[in-house]
Every structure is written in C-alpha cells, then in structure tokens.
Structures
1.
Amino acid sequence: MTHMSHISASEPRLDQEEAAKWLRLKVVNRRIVARDIVAFDLEDPAGEPLPVFAAGAHVDVRAGDGLIRQYSLCNDPRERHRYRLGILLDPQSRGGSAAIHAGFAEGELVDIGMPRNLFPIRDKARPALLFGGGIGITPILAMAHELEAAGASFALHYCVRDASRAAFLDEIGAGALAPHCKVHFDDGAAEQRLDVAALLAGADRRTDLYVCGPAGFIDHVRSEARRVGWPDDQIHSESFDAAVDLSGGSFELIAERSGRRFIVPPGKSPAQVLLDAGIDVPVSCEQGICGTCLCDVLEGTPDHRDLIQSDEEKASNKQIALCCSRSLTPVLRIDL
C-alpha cells in the first residue's frame, strides 16, 4: 500500500475499513519552535472536534513513499479542536521526518492515525517527576498540561544541548506551567544542569517518574533512579531512538497460514525475511516501539527485543514483534 504525505481533496477516499483507522486533517499552522524542530497544528477540515486523547498518546503519520511514522501529541489534552505534533528533523532520518519537514505545508491534508497511548500517566493522585530530553519533551509537555489541569503535584525537567534546541519555551516558561518547570542546558553553568540523584533525594517516595527522549538520556535517568532505590514500577519511559539489535544465530521461521518456511539469518528481522518473500507484514516504526507488527506465536520461544510489550507479556511468549525480535529456539511458528 502506498501512503502519500500530500493528499488533495480530489484524491480517491480511503476504503471504509481503512478510513476507520485514519483521520484526514488539515495543517492549519506550521512554525519552527527550535533548531530543526517544527510544530504542526492539525485540525478537522470541517471544524469538527477531534477524538479525545490522553497525555502520552501518539499517532501514526503517513509521511510519503509508503512510510508511516509515530509522533507524540504534545498539546493540552483538553483541546478538542487540534492535534499538535513537534517533529525533529533527524540527521539519521530513514525518510519520515525529512519528508514531513519538506512536504507538510499549511493548507495540506494529511492522514493521521487514531491516537494510541502506550505511555499514560498511571495515577494523577501520586506525585510525578517528568523528564524530557530533547524532542522527548513532546509527550512530557502534554503530561504537564494534564497534571496541571488535575491539580496534581508534579515537576517537569527539560534537558537540551543548548538554548537553540529548546522547543516550546514560550509554553513551558509562562502561564500555569511555569511554576512547575525547569529547563537544563548541557552547555550552561554547572549548577543548573540536571542532577537526577539530587532531585530524587528530596522527592516523596511515592513519586512516579516519567522520562522520554534519546536512549542515553532515558538510561541515565533510569540508572540514577535505581541507584537510589527507586522501584522499577514507578519508572515509566518512552524512547525516540530505539536501537534494533538483530544479532544472533539463524533460526527457522514457519508462517503457518501461508504454509511457508524460511531461514532468518543474523542481521535480518523476521519481518524483512517475510517481506522479501512477498508475504504481507504490517510494519511501521521498524524499531519495536509501535506494536504494528505484533504477531501471535504458535510454537517456539521468541527472543523479545521490542519496547512495546510489558515484562509480563514477554514472559507469556504469546506474541512477537516481527520487526526487531528473533528466536531462542531453533524453530519459531507464527500465525501468519
């Protein structure tokens, strides 16, 4: 299926089943909010209210040339008239962010998936510490709005390399959010840099931590929290640059419904092998962070390398993320 990033009103409409999964929205505002980061406001062309979302939600975005990418909604969830995306032009872009930066102009109609939430606020009655690193501020900003609206106890710490890369400062540093927020610059004075251990030392032990950003930033926050005894079930994260490790030995993959067998070699994912053989596999992020390619396991034990399933779901071995996982057994049989 080919997905276009520019869709005119005269183009054929999606079929009924496909249309139910997508919203065709209009880019009503496009503005640069930081170095290499553009914010897009999307609204219903007829002015209808958009489906409700909760902080932490993301949407699929059709970015052109068959690409679908995931981006967090970063506006106040109380808003029903718009969805806002903040999208970084990734220097390592596999095509998605580059196509959106180049092509999503004001007035364009674009296809956006229904909001999905894999990174929700667990309990607004508990104190929260929010950590956003770089473009990871997007879901964290929506969380700050939701927590402020609920009258919850929270603090937001936004970490960026330098001032030119700090997005949405007008929103973070003014109005109702300002008393809760602090920005940390890597190139700034030592006393204003992020000190996770110090923050946690003075925090209520019931506090939930929410962290989003590059993998290194998340690892730093997680490791510091664990070092001072923070429970894993109070540390919640979402990564924007999950690395895919496809190392390991070959294994046999049996696609039960297709009646075909394949050898998956080191360095290739099951999804790549299946797609090369002409078997239709739904893929999107190709990093194990969206869940599009989850498939039921009928036999064998997956080597789970995704970030979408919980530890309990992985332990059950009921599903495998075909874009990034491998097998711990010589044979893996899947329902495909």
2.
Amino acid sequence: MSEQQKSRTTVDIFGQQYTIVGAESTSHVRLVASIVDDKMREISAKNPHLDINKLAVLTAVNVVHDFLKLKDEYEMIQRQPRNQKE
C-alpha cells in the first residue's frame, strides 16, 4: 500500500487528540474513534478513579469481549442450514 492511498484523520478520544493514518475513510475512522470515546466514558463513569492507562486497557478488554461475542454469534448463524436463516 503506498503512502498516497493513506489518509490522516485527527480525532478526539477521551479529551486527547490522535492522528490516525490508514486506508479507511475519514468517516470510518471518526466512527471508530467515537465508539472508543463512548466506551471509555462509560467505563470511566462507573470507575471514576481509574488512571488513563487502566481505563484504556479496560476499554480494550471490553471492546474485544464484545467483538468475540459478535463473532461467535455470526459463526453460529453461518452454521445454520439455509432454510433456518430465512
């Protein structure tokens, strides 16, 4: 992938600015950043004394947990016979 195909998008996550470089659209990067920010704020509201590093790790753990649950559900749906999906 060449440097020309990558875009730079600056986002705000939990009060910090980050510049993300990648091939995804700006709108996609902003959506991802918004979801991360929302999750961090949700966890911080329940645990206001967490330092930023622990908050970031707990956010990552929660997001990966959600991802794995969705992946398992998707794989279960994929294994169903076609007539049960409709």
